[in-house]
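Moderator note: this is an archived Q&A kept for reference. The question asked for a predicted structure of one protein chain; the sequence and the answer are reproduced below.
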Amino acid sequence: MKIKVFTAGGTIDKIYSEEKGTYNFSFGKPAIREIVEEKVKLNFEHDVERLLAKDSLEMTEEDRQLIKKACEEAIANKILITHGTDTMIETAKVLSEIPDKVIILTGASQPYKFRESDAEFNIGVAIGALNVLDKGVYIVMNGRVYEWDKCQKIDSGHFVEK
């Protein structure tokens, strides 16, 4: 198995610093790179590529087309995308036009660097799901795998079936 991983930013990759009583954020090294290259030794080929480092609320249609083009051009037919949860479904809709690939979008409700983060769990579930899913676009959050058009976000990183 070979998977291609694209990172697009979102809370999962944010680094927060407190200055003068307010929180400012920037994007650090992609969380998935640290997880799959330093913590877990995956036993299959994988490649991680950062496409964007944006809060998903700031994503544009051009950003989504960039992600789509990268997925279309990827040699691997199993793709994992780390993405902000606020507009994950909008990006999934754009990607749903791509045939013959398994594409999973995942993220986190808290930055990977936070102790309470669900980042590692969500990435683990997503990688496991890539092994068994049929072609299509999926959202993986909170221990669940959702078809992209059969779920909705209800609050800070939590999704449910609709």
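Archived answer notes: The domain at 2-161 is CATH 3.40.50.1170 (Rossmann fold).
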